[in-house]
Amino acid sequence: MKPLVDLTGKRGLVIGIANAHSIAAGCAQAFHDCGARLAATYLNGKAEPFVAPVAETLGVEWLAACDVRVPGELEALFERVKSEWGGLDFLLHSIAFAPKEDLHGRVVDSSAEGLALAMDVSCHSFLRMARLAEPLMSDGGCLLCVTFYGSERVVEHYNLMGPVKAALESATRYVAAELGPKGIRAHAISPGPIATRAASGIDRFDELLERAAATVPQHQLVTIEDVGGLAAFLVGDAGRHITGTIIPVDGGQHLLG
């Protein structure tokens, strides 16, 4: 009998590894442990020396540059997927960005340019990836992205990323509906606060971590390994009839007002 999560032979693209402590790294580790073949990206030449050693430990077969803000880079990435593998079985989108001046200010004070950039990198890039992955997933597949419960509740200091993540979650549901007939599933995973490099950009994030640890029903923070376990399950055959969900892995934080 096969294990519940057996990803042997499945080809996955992981976008968003910054270091060994990032959520994308935790997911990649779980995918690797379940037998998947992996490719991953780094943002630019400056980031490559930090990502490459992590990717090597995670069994990543190949790395490629991908800054979704640079015209043509995302398209070139999927062309490489096609040339290297001929197809794709799953994808993890774990990137987000907002200009500091907009992220640290009130939502009502956000600039049009700042909001547009945050939406482009954090949300619309997932739609672009879904469109590019679609022809590569001829036998179906799974598209994952990462969100946060600040999308549905006001979380102090989360600010502009709240509306942006709400848009990402809505986009995920539409992706699932539109690509479902082709056997392509889509999910947004919603972890509790985790001390990652990306999260450190949120003002007073350490206070958010402390508050979560003290108040969530399980009274402990989740880890990147917890997120990876859920991601691997969703990608695997056991999750083949689950799609269009926003799934919390947060120790019960989503239960609280």
From TrEMBL:
Top-tier EC class: oxidoreductase
Statement: the UniProt record of this protein carries the keyword Lipid biosynthesis: yes
EC assignment: 1.3.1.9
Catalyzed chemical reaction(s): a 2,3-saturated acyl-[ACP] + NAD(+) = a (2E)-enoyl-[ACP] + NADH + H(+)
Pathway assignment: Lipid metabolism; fatty acid biosynthesis
PANTHER family: ENOYL-[ACYL-CARRIER-PROTEIN] REDUCTASE (PTHR43159), ENOYL-[ACYL-CARRIER-PROTEIN] REDUCTASE [NADH], CHLOROPLASTIC (PTHR43159:SF2)
High-level lineage: Bacteria, Pseudomonadati, Pseudomonadota, Alphaproteobacteria, Sphingomonadales
Family statement: Belongs to the short-chain dehydrogenases/reductases (SDR) family. FabI subfamily.
Presence of keyword Magnesium: no
Molecular function, one GO term: enoyl-[acyl-carrier-protein] reductase (NADH) activity
Residues binding substrate: A98
Record: residues binding NAD(+): G16, S22, I23, D67, V68, I95, K165, I194, A195, T196, R197, A198
Biological processes annotated in GO: fatty acid biosynthetic process
Pfam families per record: adh_short_C2
Name the UniProt record assigns to this protein: Enoyl-[acyl-carrier-protein] reductase [NADH]
Keywords: Fatty acid biosynthesis, Fatty acid metabolism, Lipid biosynthesis, Lipid metabolism, NAD, Oxidoreductase
Organism of origin: Sphingobium yanoikuyae (Sphingomonas yanoikuyae)
UniProt xrefs under NCBIfam families: PRK07533.1
